[in-house]
Amino acid sequence: MTGSDDKSGRRGPLLVLPAAAYLMIFFVLPLIIVLVISFVERGRAGGVRSPLAPTIQYYIRLVDPLYVGIFFKSARIALLVTGVCVLLGYPLAVFIGRSPPRLRSPLLMLVMIPFWTNFLVRTYAMKQLLGAEGGINGLLLWLGLIHSPLSLIFNEFSVVLGLVYGYFPFAVLPMYASIEKFDLTLMEAASDLGANLRRAFLQVMLPLTFPGVLAAIVLVFVPVVGAFITPDIMGGGKVEMIGTLINRQFGVARNWPFGSAMSLALMVMVVAGVLYYLRSSEEKERPI
User: Residue 212: what are its φ and ψ, rounded to 5°?
Assistant: First the structure.
């Protein structure tokens, strides 16, 4: 080993130190604090009891059918939103990826425009659009298709629509990155070998662009399953998800231990689900 290699080897840990310190301070340490809070009793006026009194009652409460149902409902809504984003985003990503190079940047800019505005502002804009006096009901009334405003807000439909609108770009961008690298001549080769368009897509294009689809699934599902701003605004308090429940425990109820226990349970559920999905996807891609 030369002297320069030896210096580079010693310099490596120093370069990683800032990132490691950042993760330790802003991720590991808060996670430890949340873990500790979840095992102590709630104070009379909220927060945590002083001195700390260890307990596991809040984890026992999590198996209550009410909270189990909310967990499953959150997962169901997150899966639905993820599925809609991927199914609608994949054709759009293909269209952008196959467009002439001079048009790709403007099209990608249109996809990313929502990022330029505050998430809260976009959610309220969607709420106004779906309201009784919003644009959709106004258009339907003007066309004479309905005689009274439809109930499009404060239900699960509006929550799903708001989440799809908010996280749709997270699905399009990673799929576009994979599709742009895809060699279109492979589809032509499959067609020359007798495969129709459907078979060529399922057996050639989709497997080769699946890493982008997988990234889109993770990028949408993980934040949606714990979302609380959109369900709270678009659901009007009528659509309970685990994110809104956790937010209420820390805010209104001031039950920090129970909120911490639910947060950790949600994190474990999401990490376990994502790891299982990634492992099953890797096994499917292995040659027999």
Answer: -70, -40
Side-chain-side CA neighbours of residue 169 (13 Å): 12
- Tell me phi and psi for residue 216, to 5 degrees: -65, -40
Say if residues 84 and 220 touch (Cβ distance below 8 Å). Answer: no
3-state secondary structure of 149: coil
Band of residue 133 on the pLDDT scale cut at 50, 70, 90: confident
Render pLDDT for 194-213 as a digit per residue (tens, 0 to 9).
888 889 898 999 999 998 99
- Kindly state which CATH superfamily the domain 71-279 is placed in: MetI-like (1.10.3720.10)
Nearest of 200, 148, 205 to residue 181 by alpha carbon: 205
d(CA 46, CA 145): 52
SS3 15: helix
Whole-number Cα distances in Å, 166 to 60, 105, 111, 147, 197: 34, 21, 11, 30, 32
**pLDDT-derived band at 244, boundaries 50, 70, 90:** very high
Between 42-46, 89-93, 106-110, the lowest mean confidence (pLDDT) is in 42-46
